[in-house]
Design brief:
With about 700 residues, the chain is of the alpha+beta class. It is about 40% helix and about 25% strand. The chain has five domains: about 130 residues, Four Helix Bundle (Hemerythrin (Met), subunit A) (Up-down Bundle), CATH 1.20.120; about 100 residues, Alpha-Beta Plaits; about 60 residues; about 180 residues, Histidine kinase-like ATPase, C-terminal domain (Heat Shock Protein 90, 2-Layer Sandwich); about 140 residues, CheA-289, Domain 4 (OB fold (Dihydrolipoamide Acetyltransferase, E2P)), CATH 2.40.50.180.
Length: about 700
């Protein structure tokens, strides 16, 4: 019987990428000297799982490379090798190399063999360096005592896998082949459990094996081969006694076992089997889109799944009640007041169930921001060493949950902002000491919920931004004129303009005048905003505000002429009616309205969207004051219709990218309504030459 192992490849790659994250986090935590046993064990187990999985699926290059890493980690785990900055760096770079190998294998592209060879040689060279002498003489003595006192000549193995072993992505034949490479192998198969042909399940395993291995292989080597199936099989491993000179086998003798084998959590047990698909306490839900541009699955707590199942049960009950009521009405050919009341109650119950189901489904898409934050300790470590700076990274709010799509798309903008804080913000150690600061700079990444948004802050205690220098640079770049009067916020916002850079030297970290404009554009496309607050000599804080989800929003339906539009509730400040004499003209073309000391530009949506409307007089319409990027403007509309939650459909995927709209939705009456994009509306307004934000005198 042959099994198509390709069906398990996606799970293997996902497990492996998660294992790499575990390895990277663990290696970052290791301090020079005798390693923390718990940390190094977690790194070892992750490497072991990747090695075992790649061997099972026939990815020999990955298996061989990981084996060398595993050997080095095993010496650290046994306390026969100290952790040094050098071997930690080699292992971290090897993790990067292993990630590239996995990505190439997953995408079916060639592996960079030269890079693999380079890092494999580095690992082997490090292994050849003499390990710390006497680091664990007690362990070494105990291990030696085992081998000398027992005269072990091999192993007797009883292997009885459960029926579903093949479904978990494991193949006993692969294990037997690996055993055969360790020495002389004798195998006896037990087929007494095989069913009659007509009852035979093609994907079940009915065989078990009695195995004799004549080899000097260690117990750990045997455990390693069975690690992926030990939870789904009956496994009995016993040492063989040495064959005496007369050819007869002596009786078994008592063994003094290696100390580290006495503790089960120190054995190289993999974190998850392929059959787990997410381990205990959660399930893995795939989106069938592959893993090219982001994670193709997310972990879902079983509590959330149970809640969904309960809600579906409630919906089925409500549907049955309404169906029965419909049959009663159809049979009677008329409807009584009691039946009308039952119908109304049923519809209210259906609405309540649907709303709760929607909320529960949205919770399934929520992931902790730690998935994004986890990359920064390594980034800060590498770049601070490269630049000769001493930087401490502080993370908080890592459990804050946000939509999976936002997690995937916010990573690159955050990386760019952190790199800028590293390069432009934090000073060199000697400069910090001269300013009376600690030589260690600090960068903080904070995440928290505020209202209907998630807020991410990047804070550094560096030199801050020089407003005068920024303004002068903006004039030199002809981004502003000398006559322009700018607020502090507008001066800081110059950084986000294309081609603007304050770096005196071009480096591979920053300073080419590209990137920050792209960062802001990407954040705006997510429906968010980014602001800068800085004090010269003290530091800088960059604040990103993002919606919790990109799939559903609370919207206000408005009417302009015969068309309906959706305005995000989070953008609306207030709605009011104004009179003509309250409107001022700017430059003879644009209208503004003075509200609490601020001149707010008025945007007539029927002009922007070329919609015919009968309400040309401003007094006959309504003004909806909205906010975007810290600026206010008023939308002149005909009517407010009501508030509702709307499901966002992408215009770009279903039609084309359209300025001024972030998407579309289908209303309850079946009509399509476009969702307004406030930054896009502002840009359209500026393109038409109308006024923008102006402070009142």
């Amino acid at each position: 019987m042959s099994i198509d192992m390709a069906q398990f490849h996606q799970v293997f790659f996902e497990e492996s990428f998660e294992g790499l994250e575990v390895m990277e986090r663990g290696l970052m935590e290791l301090e020079p000297g005798i390693p923390d046993s718990e940390v190094v064990n977690s790194v070892f187990r992750a490497a072991h799982s990747i090695k075992g999985g790649s061997g099972t699926f026939g990815f020999k290059a990955i298996s061989d490379f990981t084996h060398v890493m595993e050997t080095l980690l095993d010496e650290m785990r046994d306390n026969v090798r100290e952790v040094t900055e050098q071997n930690s760096d080699i292992l971290l770079k090897s993790v990067d190399c292993l990630r590239e190998m996995l990505e190439a294998t997953q995408n079916e592209t060639p592996v960079d063999q030269d890079r693999v060879t380079e890092y494999q040689q580095l690992l082997e060279r490090e292994l050849n360096v003499r390990a710390t002498p006497g680091a664990n003489s007690e362990t070494a003595q105990d291990t030696q005592e085992v081998s000398s006192s027992t005269g072990n000549a091999g192993w007797s193995i009883s292997f009885k896998p459960q029926a579903e072993v093949f479904r978990s992505g494991n193949d006993p034949l692969v294990i037997l082949r690996e055993l055969n490479e360790l020495g002389e192998l004798k195998v006896s198969a037990d087929s007494t459990q095989v069913s009659d042909f007509e009852l035979l399940e093609s994907e079940d395993c009915f065989l078990s094996w009695e195995i004799t291995l004549v080899s000097d292989a260690s117990r750990e080597q045997i455990d390693e081969l069975f690690a992926w199936v030990e939870d789904i099989s009956q496994l009995d491993i016993n040492p063989l006694t040495e064959v005496n000179t007369c050819g007869s086998e002596s009786t078994a003798v008592a063994l003094k076992v290696d100390k580290k084998a006495e503790t089960s959590d120190q054995l190289p047990v993999p974190q998850r089997r392929a059959s787990d698909c997410g381990g205990s306490g959660d399930r893995r839900v795939g989106d069938r889109r592959g893993n090219q541009s982001g994670a193709s699955s997310i972990r879902v707590d079983t509590v959330k799944i149970d809640s969904l199942i309960n809600m579906v049960g409630e919906l089925v009950i409500t549907q049955s009640m309404l169906g029965l009521l419909g049959e009663t009405i159809e049979d009677n050919q008329q409807i009584t007041p009691q039946e009308i009341e039952k119908l109304r109650d049923g519809l209210m119950q259906l609405e309540r169930n649907t709303r709760e189901l929607q909320e529960n489904v949205m919770q399934v898409r929520m992931m902790p921001i730690s998935f994004t934050f986890s990359r920064f300790p390594r980034l800060v470590r590498d770049l601070s060493g490269q630049m000769g700076k001493k930087i401490d990274l502080k993370l908080s709010g890592e459990t804050t949950e946000v939509d999976k799509n936002i997690i995937e798309k916010i990573g690159d903008p955050l990386v760019h902002l952190v790199r800028n804080s590293l390069d432009h913000g934090i000073e060199m150690p000697e400069d910090r000491l001269a300013c009376g600061k600690s030589e260690n700079g600090t960068i903080e990444l904070n995440a928290f919920h505020r209202g209907g948004n998630i807020v991410i802050e990047i804070v550094d205690d560096g030199k801050g931004l020089d407003k005068d220098m920024l303004r002068q640079k903006g004039i030199e770049k002809e981004l502003i004129s000398e006559e322009d009067i700018l607020s502090d916020k507008q001066v800081f916002d110059l950084i986000f303009m294309a081609g603007f850079s304050t770096a005196k030297e071009v480096t591979d970290v920053s300073g080419r005048g590209v990137g920050m404009d792209v960062v802001r554009r990407n954040i705006l496309e997510l429906g968010g905003s980014v602001e800068i607050d800085s004090v010269l000599g003290t530091g800088t804080k960059m604040t990103i505000r993002l919606p919790l989800t990109l799939a559903i929003l609370d919207g206000q339906t408005i009417r302009v002429g015969e068309e309906n539009y959706i305005v995000p509730i989070t953008s609306i400040v207030e709605s009011l009616q104004i009179k003509t004499d309250m409107v001022n003209m700017v430059g003879g073309q644009g209208e503004t309205f003075k509200l609490r000391g601020e001149y707010i530009p008025i945007i007539r949506l029927h002009n922007i969207f070329d919609v015919t409307t009968s309400d040309k007089i401003i007094e006959e319409g309504l003004l909806v004051v909205v906010e975007t990027d810290g600026e206010h403007f008023g939308l002149l509309i005909d009517e407010l219709l009501g508030q509702q939650q709307v499901v966002i459909k992408s215009l770009e995927q279903n039609y084309k990218r359209t300025e001024g709209f972030s998407g579309a939705t289908i209303l309850g009456d079946g009509h399509v309504a476009l969702i307004l994009d406030m930054p896009g509306i502002m840009r359209l307004n500026k393109k038409m030459g109308l006024p923008s934000h102006v402070k009142a005198a």
